[in-house]
Write a structure and sequence with these properties.
Blueprint lengths: L4 E6 L1 E2 L1 H18 L4 E5 L11 H9 L4 E3 L10 H4 L6 E2 L14 E5 L2 E9 L11 H12 L5 E7 L3 H11 L5 E5 L9 E2 L5 E3 L4 E6 L6 H10 L10 E13 L4 E11 L1
Parallel strand pairs: 1-3, 2-12, 3-4, 4-5, 7-8, 8-9, 9-11
Antiparallel strand pairs: 1-13, 6-7, 10-11, 12-13, 13-14
Length: 263
Amino acid sequence: MGGVISILFLGDIVGRPGRDIVTKQVPALREQWQLDFVIANAENAAAGAGITGTIARDLLANGVDVVTLGDHVWDQKGFEAEIKTLDRVCRPANLPAACPGLERVVVEKNGFRLGVFTVIGRNFIAMKGDCPFLAADRVLKASEADCDAVFAEVHMEATSEKIAMGWYLDGRALAVVGTHTHVATADATVLPKGTAYLTDAGMCGPYESVLGRDIQAVLGRFLDGMPRRFEIASGDVRLSGAVVRYDPVAKRAVSCELVTVKA
């Protein structure tokens, strides 16, 4: 292993605008920031709801090393079969064991083996999962034999649940970074025992929107409660995420920084 390991984690990729900025910017960012690994949550990559095998393979072919998913994992018809063919895509680790797909991914560069997994929360999320804390314990235990460090994504609505997970995994995970709300937070830090932490990495997609969706449609729904189709917006496209730097000798994160790149 060499020096400090640099990892870019990308918040929820939303629709085509999110996919386009990621595939365009990531190859250049890898070189510019000397990145060793890029991880991206892409559970909203297919028109804002789920992902397809084609989209996953395109992201992986354009500089993303690992694709993580969340509560929209099964939104696209047939993806439960496609996920079995994707060796660098992981679904939430605390879904029922009978669900298809990997619960963690291990990638390697220059002798450094990075494990990646995600868990969904149990507050304000319709998809039901097992206890994310105990699931994280299980994945970390399973990773001891084949990983030098593990990156944990926490796909949760409640900020309290994400923060609690950060403290729970401090000193055991390389990083704990939150997703799901699509709104980046300003609390990037390194916790006392050496784990990088960020409550939410934001989204990769159109920020002239309501969480990536057309503004007028969402406003209408709030005003009269009538059902509407929420199309993906197109204005002010940005890439949002966090850059984590990790010292493999000291076995602790050196820094955690929220980053935003405009199209």
